[in-house]
Design brief:
Layout lengths: L4 E4 L5 H12 L3 E6 L6 H5 L3 E4 L5 H15 L4 E4 L14 H29 L2 E6 L12 H21 L4 E8 L5 H14 L5 H17 L3 H13 L6 E4 L3 H10 L2 H10 L3
Parallel strand pairs: 1-2, 1-4, 2-3, 4-5, 5-6, 6-7
Length: 271
């Protein structure tokens, strides 16, 4: 699929930025999007098309897809990477914040899929790569809303994959483990701000320490960028790719252990 057009969301940092740079270097026509253009100046200097887009803003998404269509034709690959983690005990997190997390992580992703599909169907080819998380297969305390969004992305992707097979459009899920990005620090900060002084304080402090340790041991974003490139290049891609620190081990444990045993394993890491 070299020389094809790729749209990447959440490209101002982390996985999205690493993927944009790698795909550009290997011959793809890359459109990198994020809310803040100034954070993508290095991408622009590398020859990548950068565009401001907010995945919670309908007009913004429509405008970007239309502009790319007029300039480059159909979007051949959509990499839905934009997302964030907002942690806190369920009792403490305002429902408005929970809804916003769904807007970013699920509904923005879904709306972009809707927008790129007509052109993909017309050419009877395309690839949609949804960046989920190992958190789409497991739960943890204080992450209920984040994990709910990623479980939703997993189910959405499975259903979409079957719908689009008839049109030659493939759907791939990427499940990162611990990755060194700003995601972890944002999640930790939110966790402590929301629940660090509530009835959940004791476990929250332990959880924050665990997240910090996981960040220190995390893989570089380029690890996931390589997986995204692999999923694009593959003639017949896997439906799921898990990569990054701890991903395979954690998913294997979840598959093999009963619920209560897995709960104990997760809680045992919060010291």
């Amino acid at each position: 699929m070299k020389n094809k057009t790729v749209l990447i969301t959440g490209a101002s940092s982390g996985i999205g930025k690493a993927a944009a740079l790698l795909l550009n270097e290997t011959g793809y026509r890359v459109y990198a999007t994020a809310r803040q253009l100034e954070k993508m100046k290095d991408l622009e200097q590398a020859g990548i098309w950068v565009m401001a887009m907010d995945v919670t803003n309908e007009k913004s998404m429509v405008a970007v897809v239309k502009a790319i269509g007029q300039e480059a034709g159909a979007i051949d690959v959509l990499v839905n990477n934009a997302g964030y983690g907002s942690y806190g005990a369920v009792e403490d997190v305002p429902i408005a914040e929970a809804k916003y997390q769904f807007e970013v992580n699920v509904f923005g992703l879904a709306r972009l899929v809707q927008l790129v599909l007509p052109a993909m169907r017309a050419q009877r080819s395309g690839r949609i790569i949804n960046i989920s998380s190992i958190g789409g297969r497991i739960g943890e305390p204080h992450g209920a809303w984040y994990h709910a969004t990623k479980f939703a992305v997993e189910g959405f992707s499975d259903s979409l994959r079957m719908e689009l097979r008839q049109f030659g459009i493939e759907v791939v899920v990427v499940q990162p483990g611990a990755i060194k990005t700003e995601w972890n620090s944002i999640a930790r900060t939110n966790l402590l701000n929301v629940s660090g002084a509530t009835a959940y304080k004791n476990l929250v402090e332990k959880h924050a320490r665990m997240l910090k340790a996981a960040d220190d041991r995390g893989s570089e974003p380029e690890v996931i960028a390589q997986i995204i490139a692999k999923a694009i290049r593959a003639k017949t891609p896997k439906t799921r790719y898990a990569a990054g620190a701890g991903a395979s081990l954690i998913l294997t444990a979840r598959r093999l252990l009963p619920d209560q045993a897995f709960d104990r394993l997760v809680l045992s890491q919060m010291k």
